[in-house]
Every structure is written in structure tokens, then in C-alpha cells.
User: Fold Iron ABC transporter permease from Paenibacillus odorifer.
Amino acid sequence: MINTSRSRIIVIVTLALAFVAAIIAIGLGSVYISIPDILSTIFGSAAKAVNATIIWDIRLPRVLLAMIIGANIAVSGALLQAVMGNPLADSGLTGVTSGAAACVLVIMLAAPQYTEFIPIAAFVGGLIAAGIVYALAWRRTGISPITIILSGVAVNALCGGLIGLLTIMYSDRLPAAVQWLNGSLAAKGNNALMMVFPYAIAGWILSFFAIRKANIIRLGDQVASNLGENVDRIRILLSLLAVFLAAISVAAIGMIGFVGLVVPHMARLLVGSDYKFLLPMSMGLGALVLLIADTGGRTLFAPLDIPAGILMAVIGGPYFLYLMRKKAF
Assistant:
């Protein structure tokens, strides 16, 4: 049993670390900006014009976007793990990410005149993918964890085939979508941030209202039914929320894998399975992890800007194999 006070302290420390990491990340790049200069620019005291342009127009929007997307995907993964009853479930492995990406790519390549519908397309694609996986994994006795993984593999393969077909058919338009396919935050500014921010706030608020339901569903179908809860309705509502958070993230920066798997698992080890702490911990840790991945991608390999999605795949793939090896499902 993990102590409540300890869990609360860990969550607060994680959120503080994310804030500190954000300040440091803003200063790193081809032009180094010291922390005092960053703080003076952000909080309105005298600042160099060059620093102000770099911070407000380039680095701060990217840092905030990385943190918001990381929090979104981590919370989505945590909710899906409650719905599926499987600590290995996340938006990537269950096909939600690839489903959303396939629908977004249809608009980006085949119908670019309808780009304003990208968030809706992402949500619909993710919802269809989640519905297929849920339908295949459901049994009268409950949801089979192994079937979730196998169904997710099948859906990912199907969506991957569609993505491959689109890239071949519209190869002349592909350069604009290459970085998006790899989950890159390069050149993402205030427009992308403003697109995601209101949806993210709404999703986070709904997620905190869903904490009690997530705690109930993780106890098992029988216990939840005995408490008078409609298990199927809870699963549907939590799934819709998880897909919504994952879909708006895909719409903004593309496919980011393994954040929804790695982060909730790490959070669970630190603060336990109570969603009262697991959800804010996943949010803070997700923001921190993706921020580190993006900052590392743009600074460690300069002048190259390696997409955060690639770094997360390099880190998350081995971690997933480790969890499989430890039979954490």
C-alpha cells in the first residue's frame, strides 16, 4: 500500500520538475539563452529583442506544445489501461493512433482544402480503431488482454497499409507530411498550440471528473456491477475520452508512440493504481518525458532536428519488450 502523503509529494515534485525542465529547454538551442534572461523575458521585465523573438515565437510554443501533447497521450494511455484492464494498453498499441493518423493523412494528402476538419477526422479514425479492438477483445467473461494486443496489431497493420497506399498515391505531396508521420514538433508554433490548447483543457477537466469511474472499473466487472455501475457505459465514456485526447494530439503533431504505455506504467510504480494520483502523475510525467525527448532531438543531433516520435520509439520499444518479458499483462 502506497502512502497517500508520499504519493501527493511525488506528484507535486514531478510537476515542479516539468516546470524546471521547460525553463531549461527554452534556453537550449543554436542560440543559448540564460535562465535569468528567460525569466526576465517571460515575466515582462527588460529583455533583448532577439531573445524575446526566439522565446515567444519559436521555443516557448514548442515547449508548451510538447508538454501538452505528452500529458494528453499519457492520460489517454492511463484511461485505456483502466478500460481494457491491461497495463500494456495504450493509444499506439490498440490502434487508436494509427487509425487517427490514417484519417488525418487522407485529408492532408487527398483533400488538403479541408484541413480545418483534421481534428474531427483524427477523432473519428481513432474511434473506429478503438471500436474494432474493443469488439474483437470483448468476451462474456470480460476483456482478454492478449486479444487486445493481437487486435491492436491487426488494426495497426490495416491502418499502416492505408497510410502506405496514400503515400504512394500522393507521393508528390508527401514532403509536407513526412515530419508529421514521424511525430515531429519542428516548426510548430502558436497556431498549433492554440489549436490543441482548448481541447486539451476540456479533456483534462473531463478526465479528473472520470477518476472515480476509472477506479471503479479497474476493480473488475463483477465488483463494478455489484456497486450498481453500468460497466459498458463506463467503458464507452472512458474510451471516448481517451480517444479524444489521443486524436487531438495526432492531429497536432502526428504519431507519437509508447508515451501512453511507458508513462502510466512508471507512474503506477511511483504512486500506485489509485487514479486520484495516477492521473495527475501521468499528466506531469508525460509532459516531462515528451519534453525531454523533443529537446534531446533538437539539441543532441544539431543541426538535425530528430522527431520526438522517433526517439520515443527507440526508447519505448525496448521498454515494451521488457514488460512483455516480465509478463506485466
Summary: The chain has one domain: 4-31+62-325. Strands lie at 138-139, 142-143.
